[in-house]
């Protein structure tokens, strides 16, 4: 499968988009967890102002005054926001590692895993054929006693 720049660029853009949306979601989750109810910007301009404000250290930006009054302390907002962003990073890295081993450049073509071999051969047949399957580990040593 050819790999051009469009697919990685689209994946990176989608990843950044999700990470950006986690900022106001983290603020909403912090408000919800502390009993203030879910808060979210009501307009697109409010969402943009919210993203910029959260990055600048102003957790109440982009919200209407009644929603902003329900926010907990800034430390709580940024703690929840950081936890969400770190969780997103960990899930992304685990997904990338799985993709790399399964479909990406790191996949091993034509090799069966231990579980697949056991399904096909069964445990007893694998033990009988171990010298054929892994000759580096189970081959019989050559007979000693050179020419006479």
Key words describing this protein structure:
148 residues, mainly alpha, elongated
Task: Report what the structure shows.
With 148 residues, the protein is an all-alpha fold. It has two domains: 6-102, no CATH class; 109-137, no CATH class. 65% of the residues lie in helices and 0% in strands. It is built from eight helices and no strands. The chain has helices spanning 6-33, 44-56, 65-68, 74-102, 114-121, 123-128, 130-133, 135-138. Helix 1 (6-33) packs across helix 2 (44-56) and helix 1 (6-33) packs antiparallel against helix 4 (74-102). It is elongated and about 95 Å long. The mean pLDDT is 88.
Count the domains.
Answer: 2
Gross morphology is: elongated
Q: How many strands?
A: 0
How would a textbook summarize the main sheet? none
Spatial extent as radius of gyration:
28 Å
Please state roughly what percent of the residues sit in beta strands, choosing from under 5%, 5-15%, 15-25%, 25-35%, 35-45% or over 45%: under 5%
Uncertain regions: pLDDT < 50 for 5+ in a row? Answer: none
Output the structural class: mainly alpha
Helix-strand sequence: HHHHHHHH
Number of helices: 8
> Mean pLDDT, as a whole number?
88
Through-space gap between termini: 59 Å
What percentage of residues falls in helices of 4 or more residues? 55-70%
What would a concise description of this structure say?
This protein has helices at residues 6-33, 44-56, 65-68, 74-102, 114-121, 123-128, 130-133, 135-138. By secondary structure, the chain is mainly alpha-helical. The protein folds into two domains: 6-102, no CATH class; 109-137, no CATH class.
């Amino acid at each position: 499968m050819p790999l051009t720049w469009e697919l990685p660029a689209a994946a990176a853009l989608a990843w950044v988009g999700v990470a950006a949306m986690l900022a106001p979601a983290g603020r909403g989750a912090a408000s919800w967890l502390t009993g203030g109810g879910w808060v979210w910007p009501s307009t697109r301009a409010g969402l943009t102002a919210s993203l910029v404000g959260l990055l600048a250290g102003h957790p109440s930006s982009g919200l209407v005054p009644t929603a902003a009054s329900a926010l907990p302390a800034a430390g709580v907002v940024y703690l929840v926001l950081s936890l969400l962003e770190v969780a997103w990073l960990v899930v992304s890295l685990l997904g990338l590692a799985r993709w790399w081993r399964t479909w990406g450049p790191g996949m091993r073509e034509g090799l069966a895993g231990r579980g697949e071999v056991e399904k096909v051969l069964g445990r007893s047949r694998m033990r009988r054929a171990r010298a054929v399957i892994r000759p580096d580990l189970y081959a019989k040593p050559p007979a000693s006693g050179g020419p006479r």
